[in-house]
Amino acid sequence: MKSAFFGIEDYRRAAQRYLPRMVFDYIEGGADDESGLKHNRAAFESLRFSPSRLTDVRTRDLSTTLAGQRMELPLIVAPMGLTGACRPDGDIMLARAAARAGIPFVLSTASNVSLEDLARRASGRLWFQLYVVHPEHARALTARALAADYEALVLTTDVTVNGHRIRDLRNGFSVPMRLNPRMALDVLTHPAWLTRQVVGGFPTLPNVQTEGSANLEVQAALLQRRMDAGFSWDDLAALRESWPRKLFVKGILSASDAARCRALGIDGVIVSNHGGRQLADFPAPIEVLPSIAKEVGSTTAIIVDSGFRNGRDVVKALASGANAVMLGRALLYGLAARGEAGVAEVLAMFRADMERTLALIGCARAAALDRTHLAQR
Fold it and tell me: Where is the catalytic site (predicted)?
């Protein structure tokens, strides 16, 4: 039977049909009036390519170098919490699809599998994303990630407080899930999702469980999922001293902050507005990417996320100075629609679209992309 999936939007629609509304809204929603989501997409759509003709593009090379290491594909699976709400063992499925594609997978602090369990059940390049909820808990997570042999640590800095997500508030979305009559009816009308959740188990947050903690303040902070709003540049410097492997800082949106990261010896910055989920009025990462690349591009790895829906977007980001791109929602659409196979299919779709775009703009190597391949606005 011929596939019914020809683009990311097909996976999105399938995910919407499969998931209860409260879960789909959690994935799809943004902060405030959600104008940030639209702006992220509009920023990509405002960019156009400037092609070079009569160049040899019979073979296209998508490889790049990130923090001194070669990558065959300039993609990374972004840290995403509560993937188990899409499919039980969603984190495992994402990690295994990433390993087959030869790209890193970043496990979220808010994952539905413990970082140790993931390391046992999935191979490949594993990174761990750190939310600093409380200093004591952050130190424990960092030590666990090192003991479990995670390749890199990704510190997320843009969640000093939780964003105002109206969809989640309206739906009463929480972990653990507490169903009111309206939500229960929604769940019952999605029997395939409900059956998988009953068999596989509803999502929990094993990395932030408090059993065994003697510090009541830590327990309270974890149960309420309060972030440490006092985490500062001095704390980042201390983290850099204590973590011996690659360290990336996520949530950077200015050249000055990127420069401060470089000065502290951070291996890479992740240019991100959290997918429009924290504040609607941030710039789109693709807009500020050129200034950040100009400031630190030759000395510090640059990753970018937020709003990527096709391989053309990835090529635009590479031409704007990024070394690699983190994918989030697009992979969750594939996960919800078709499980691990859907994630692999979405990654293959991105690869094919990138190769096709390189051929059509007359650039055989992703590493050779620069601003000359983009039309001036």
Answer: 274
